[in-house]
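Hey all, sorry for the wall of text incoming. These are the two entities for the joint prediction.
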Amino acid sequence: MTTNTHTLSGSILRWLGVIALPFFLMLLFLWAGGWLTPYRLTQVAMLDALQKGSGMHPGFRRNHAKGVCITGWFEGNGNASSLSMATVLQKGRVPVVGRFALAGGLPYQADAPEKVRSMALRLMPSDRQEWRMGINDIPVFPVGTPQEFHDLQLASRPDLTTGKPDPARMQVFRTSHPWLQTARAQIGRRPVSSGFADDTYRSLDSFLFVAEDGTKTAVRWAMVPVQPVMPEIGHANDHDYLFHKVIEDIHTHPLQWRLMVTLAGSGDAIDNPSKGWPQDDRQINAGTLTLTGIGSEENGPCTGITFDPLVLPEGIMPSGDPILQARSAAYMRSFYLRSGERPTAPAVSPEMTVPSANARDKKS
Amino acid sequence: MKNVESFTLPSRILHWVMAVMILAMLLIGVFMASTVGSGYYRLVALHRSVGIAILVLAMLRLGNRLHTPPPPLPEDFPPVMKIGAHASHILLYVLMIVLPLVGWGMLSAGGYPIPLWGQSVLLPPILPHNPMLWAELRSVHTLLAFLLFGLVLAHIAAALFHGLIRRDGVLRSMVFRKSLDPISQESHGD
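and here's what came out:
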């Protein structure tokens, strides 16, 4: 070896030179992964907050855990095709796999009128430009940012002794988030329909429709039921009455919804799903969803799908709404975790989704 | 000071372009896998596209390497270190190709569409839709990424060890210089 002789301090400097760059990169890597900033809101923290409210239920979605698979088709009428080049919005029929569910991480919770219901859809055109959505029957989202969602989950988690949210903790959240008061009131006084079939489901988050010429239009949308909306009625002591009812409904006749797209008016909040849009915004009826099949999640067609709202076709883009990004990230992690866990039998069993004699009679 | 033959210009360009891409991918990957912030969607889209670009470049690079073998290590380089150098380079090549393939495979198994550079180009799935497989490959992707990051750090430290401690010309063989050192040209016949 023919290296120059050098002083001890020179040698130390050279060795420092060898390790400085790898060390710096290591720090950068640890920072990027969130390991140096324990207070940064991460996907793990988000799912932990959800789990604090509902406990650990291996194999189930971390939110909207109790559900049932649905199938059918969506038929675009072309009315929105000038706003978005998405193939699903052109005239024509595409197959759909979806899911009805109750909000919350409890897979065996009892059905109740005031619980938030959701519809998740995967619209699958033949060119594979698919559109997934998870839409809910509330008028606005209760929070406007991922941090607020996280804090609300912690504030509303059930108390260990009473099994109900701690009113004091909720009060602290409310007083520290006065700007969410309107959203809370709107959600609290929403009309409640009789079941999944006559419910209206809204995107809540805003998206951008992109036209052929690149023009972007901020939109929200809703699935509005074609079947008449019935008021909430008694449900005896049936733990799963909402699911029993929608199973019976679909076996009796196909269920339909109109996809109503709302165009943002000037001044409408695009990036905040806790803010509603006025009733007089322009609306477009973009097509009709028809559901003809329903089945248990046990080996069901919706089980291996995550209804990530940012799986979008060409022609639809996310808006600047920060909740969308957090949903996409959290759905991915939830899908990753539950897919690696041993699945447990869902509340809505395959036996429950078999057509009853009653429904078969009505159909024939 | 010993002189080592330089890598060919295409080899050096491939090396440095991919070095930047791979380091960026590792940092983006570990950030996007933890964040719920506003960059999530864009970073995932970028990660998919750059990952496929790395896969293509890595295959090109493998072809280039087989076609134009790299300059030999200095003769006085300890045999144990030589074995380590060769093994780590084989592993680097394996990971540059396998890591993007695992990423592509896991999205396929997860039933995700795989758009590249915008939304119009969709990659076909390379594995059947299978959620259990998605979860396993998602874990494997993370583990292999950690392994690659460790290897990259070791690779950088080794290069600096050559350049600052041994000063044997190995680091210089991969960097860009205005003109080739005449002595190093003579050393071809060593």
